[in-house]
Amino acid sequence: MKITLVVMVLLLLPIASFMAPAAYAEEIIEFDFLITKNDTVSLYNTRVFEGKRDTIPDISDYELTIYDTRGYAVVETAMPVYFVILDPLEEIPETLTTLRVPYQEGYHQLGVYHQGKRIYEENISFLCQADGVCTSPENVISCPADCFSGAKDGLCDRLKDSICDPDCLAGKASDSDCNGNPNRLMDQTLVLGGIIFFVILIVTIGIMLYVKKILQHKHK
Questions:
Q1: Partners of 77 in the beta sheet?
Q2: How far apart, in Å, are the Cα atoms of 113 and each of 47, 62, 63?
Q3: Is the pTM of this model over 0.70?
Q4: Would you state the pLDDT for residue 160?
């Protein structure tokens, strides 16, 4: 019986790992900067989505601070800014830097600092105007007051809300609310496969126990 249980565990491990939930995602804001050695900064892209935050360097001469509408600093983090490339090893006059940090409503302004001196600031309240109209770059995560789940806001939210999100690869490939979605068919296949596997496993164990009982009876 102990051997049977061990076999069950070994058989279940691959199924459990395969059907495990995806890595945890959170609401993220991503900034793309172009920074020069002369401390010229350009913010050329900002977007909000569900993802994973960056691993921030412990030591850096550059820092990003985000302020709320009252002027309080709600995010303070180092920035990975390096003016060197490794292949070939040489210094460069400017660098592209991407930074991902957790997002929350109320972000109003950001500041970039170099050795404690502010070298750049930008009003980012455009992420949520709260005017009743969903306009880019607002989306359901950055501004739920203006954008609703399933709206055409440039973000595939993949929420199960009975609305086929038009931003999800033409509304078919990655929203479980869309008819003919292969992801949903895959989920159903996994569930059915799991059920079949357990049925076969139980039947196999039952046969093994029955055969073992017969053999023990014959040896008596």
A1: 64
A2: 21, 6, 5
A3: no
A4: 74
